[in-house]
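Quick question: what would this complex look like in 3D?
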Amino acid sequence: MLRIRSVRVSDFGPFKGEQRIDLPKEDGVVIVYGENMRGKTTLLNAIRYALFGRVLTRGSVEIQLHQLGNWESAAHGKYGFHVVLVFEQNGDTYELTRECRIRPGVSKPASNADYIEESFLTKNGSAMGPQEAVLELSRIMPETVSRFFLFDGELLQQYEELLRSESEMGRQIKEAIERILGVPVLTNGRADLGQVHKQAQNQEAKAAQRNQKTQQLGNLHAELLGRREAMQQESTRLRQELDRLKGTKTAKEEQAKKQEMLRGLLAQRERLQEEINSLDRKILEKEEKRKNLLTSSWRSLLAPRIKALREDVEEQLQLLREESTRRFVRAETAEALRKALSTGRCSLCEQSISGEAKQHLQNRLPEFEGTRQSVDPDNRIPSLEKQVSELRRYQTDASIGVIQEVSTSIRDFRVTKATSEDRFRELKEQTAGLDESEVRRTYAEYEKAVQEIVIVENGLKAQDAALAEIDGNISRIESELDKKGGSDLQKERKRREIAEALRGLFEEGVKVYRDLLRIKVEKDATALFLELTSEPDYASLSINSSYGLTIVHNDGNMIPVRSAGAEHVVALSLMGSLQKNAPLRGPIIMDSPFGRLDSLHTRRVIHALPNMAGQVLLFVYESEIEPKLARNELKGALRAEYRIERHSARYSKVEKVV
Amino acid sequence: MTEDKKTIGLTPENRSVMEQIMEKGFFRDQKDAALLAMAYAINKEVSPGNFEGTNTIWNVGSLDPEGEVRSLVGNLFPDVNTPYRLAEYLINAGLALMGSEMATDPGLDLTDFLEKAQASFPSK
């Protein structure tokens, strides 16, 4: 039973310098908390790297080694990294070191070729040879079954593929499940016994050929066996070809999906280009408008000052005009009084004026006299009128506010354009090298693979039918030989019968073992599922021939469609059940497994973790599991807590939570 | 009596400021920028004065085809008999002010100058 004791990483991903996580000897759960981009997945990858020497993205693309080192250390000229994994297996302690060093003579590495990669394995303190170490590791943790021990919660929905009979990924997962459950022990035995049976048949044919009585039958037997051997070889070749074609089909399907996405990005890029062009036009238009406005901006800037000046001049003009009017009225009045005094009659009503009235008018006359001189001897009124008229010329509609408004629009357009250009640059990088003809070629190759699969499958069916026929003929010949053969054939016949019986036994054994496994996996997965699910109407899980699990309602009906959360719960139930039934047992190391679960399911899963595997190591963010909730649910089963602290975007540190 | 100028020029320093302003692409013509600089100086209450060492850029007929500048300067500065000489001085003074402000804060935009100039002469 594999148990990890410690993980040490040095300059790996965001982990600058050496950092370590110790896992207690006692079984239970260890949680490592870290927010997004702090390095949780990197820690999972570090374990994967130590064990298998490679790291994959979620899309199963291998990450280049030179991309795995710490960027901050690299910025200071320190390249390379190493990971040390200490683990126990059946009482032995192993220390596995895998390191990547810069190749001598290289100052700034740019690719994997600039690194030297080495690994060392010690067992109970003694170093193992390279070949021995590889064999030992593949025995302790074969990469083909690692998906059941080290997994990314985000990828749990892949197990849904087990419900789709035509799915290539489903087939691969089924094979991995059978490997972890130990089915190959029987299937390999069956294949070996098939070979032994064939050898026995050949020996029997040779013995028959040596005897004159059975020579003719022996020759026929040998010929049929030879033909069957050739047909079986052809059958094997066709099966290999079918696997290759299915692999091509899956790869082309993936490539087409990726290209489809790229084509979407290309369309987006074209839309952005149009948007940028349109913004350019708008900016140009606004800039022209602003240039026009700026032609008279000096007038706009001086407008308040000119207005104030004009108003002053207008006020002066107004005062002068009023004074002029007043003086005119007085002069006219004085003239009328003088006329009345000289004629003795009122100039308005033509009536005679009395002596007393005359005296009164004579007394008032000085009040109106002496004002005849001009109010504007310097002729200022026309000059002021001219000035007002000139100042009115400077009035303009182009207010500074309008210029500022246009400038704000230009600035806004430029900000939008800069954002669009940034996105455009990103898209340009993402779509660099995208070739429409390559997209068409991918589709054509996919179509070709589909057509060839049909042809090969038909060929295989025909081949299987021919093999069945030839097997029938061989059986008939062997029956004939049983009747005609003497004691010299008895020994060979017995050997052939034993081999055939043993092969048949293994054949039957594989069937029985698979059925038994399915029953056990279904039973244990159901028990775990009922512990995890919050839905009381769900009664059990039902397993199919590919180990796909379907939820069964209390009324006996299958639940045909399930939510992403339910997919996760079912997948976790399968993982727990496989751990219980696999001859090979180890820790469960999960990255972000609760992202799709509600709080009730999260609580139930946490509670059930100690039942899923002896050792569980979780990489989670705090909103995925509240530390308080984890402590309450796990109690003593929670063995240690770590937190990944941010020091900078490229420097994270693992710290133990006290 | 001093004769008024027939041409308007800029000092080498102000010519460089003018180039900086034109590089920003706001103005169609240097003439527009020069008149804005003049208005800027007026709003900043620059007192009339003299600039030595200017090199001719415009002839007054091309800078002020309608005689608006001469008339405006005459209206705003009634005691001045040589409006184009004063206009040249104000253009240079305005550019010098703008140049020194741009040197302090290279991020200054045209709208910042317009705002500053407006704030110097609040409406009544």
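Answer marked as accepted. The interface with chain A takes residues 25-29, 32, 35-36, 38-40, 42-43, 68, 71-72, 75-76, 109-111, 114-115, 117-118, 121-124 of chain B (CB under 8 Å).
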